[in-house]
Amino acid sequence: MGKQLIYLDYAATAPMHKEAVEAMMPYFSEQFGNPSGQYTLAGGAKRALENARKQIAATIGARPEEIYFTGSGTEADNWAIKSAVKSCRQKGNHIITTKIEHHAVLHACEAMEAEGVRVTYLSPDENGVISPEVLKKAITPDTVLVSVMAANNEIGTIEPIEELAALAHENGILFHTDAVQGYGKLPLSVADGKIAMLSASAHKIGGPKGVGFLYVRRDVKLGSFLHGGAQEKRRRAGTENVAGIVGFAKAAEITFAKREETKEREQKLRDYFIGRVLSEIPYVRLTGSAKERLSNHASFCFQFIEGETVLIMLDTDGICASSGSACTTGQTEPSHVLMAIGLPEDVAHGAVRFTMGGGTTKEQLDFTVERMKEIIGRVRAMSPYYTKFAAREDGCPTEGRTF
């Protein structure tokens, strides 16, 4: 296979669908009008924008007027959290979120703490699951917002969003979910009204970078996040990225049309890959839920190694993987997600994440496993900790052993 590119980092970003690129092209040239204009050229851009809004809304069972386009999933998260809390100040001053959220949510909550808002960070179980019982205990009379991600980007665990949203709704609390990783993979629906806000991003499903959306239930009084013009029903100022939004809608159309087919294919590849890694590489642990897991997600911690070292060596073979969130790559601290699920710091440093997509084949995964076996064996051989461990009479490594 040589230097052929093997891309296994679809959780970071996905290559754009060819059809999405083609759909965008007219809005860079002949249909370049500003959708806020009053002339015919602007009308074409406006129609494209509103058609895209309808398409996106349909994917989650929302009304078109409940969809607001943003510049990213991060912007959507920040808007939901900061504006919702400010809009509910008369009711209370308490947010509930989790210790395993994306930093777009965690840092937004930290910013609100700096303004005097009280934030409770829920702990997951060892698989990364946030239980309704844990949430119920954290709710207080002044809780105004609960924000829990639909699926974790680092360990792939799918959260019980329906139950969590229902619990918040029963208590008159707004529920927001960061669905950036789950959108297009999970059967997310806002039709029952229990989810008040939902964030998503185009580039995770084969759309362009720099485009996202925030669903806001029509009865939620969410203040503006960006101030200026009257775009997005006066709630999000700034000329809309028409080409990007059209590309987002086309990518969503493609993704949702074959979601079940894709899920079945990815699960087979995922389970095959996980099975080989766990059985053929000693002292490895699958992180996240084995059952309630994104269909394309396989994440591990390898003992006695640094995950970053493995990634560099895989890259020389043309294999693209990651050590967790692409937004925190390069940091020396262990993943906050892995620490939250109770892994020791030295183990958390051995994290490597593989996420699959439309271009992934069984042959690529076989090649990756073989390279992983060789690389990890070589790295461990240079580790005095592993050498000492292996020399112990009762600690001799055995193929397929986990910890």
Description of the molecule:
- This protein is α/β, with parallel strands linked by helices and 403 residues long.
- It is 40% helix and 13% strand.
- The protein has 14 helices and twelve strands.
- The chain has helices at 18-24, 40-60, 73-87, 103-113, 132-138, 161-170, 231-234, 242-257, 259-280, 307-316, 336-340, 345-348, 362-381, 384-391; strands spanning 6-7, 67-70, 94-98, 118-122, 143-147, 174-178, 197-201, 212-216, 284-286, 297-302, 319-320, 351-355.
- A seven-stranded mixed sheet has the order 2-8-7-6-5-3-4, sandwiched between helices. The chain has a three-stranded antiparallel sheet with strand order 9-10-12. Strands 1-11 form a two-stranded parallel ribbon.
- α1 packs antiparallel against α8, α2 (40-60) packs parallel to α8 (242-257) and α9 runs parallel beside α13.
- The radius of gyration is 22 Å and the shape is globular.
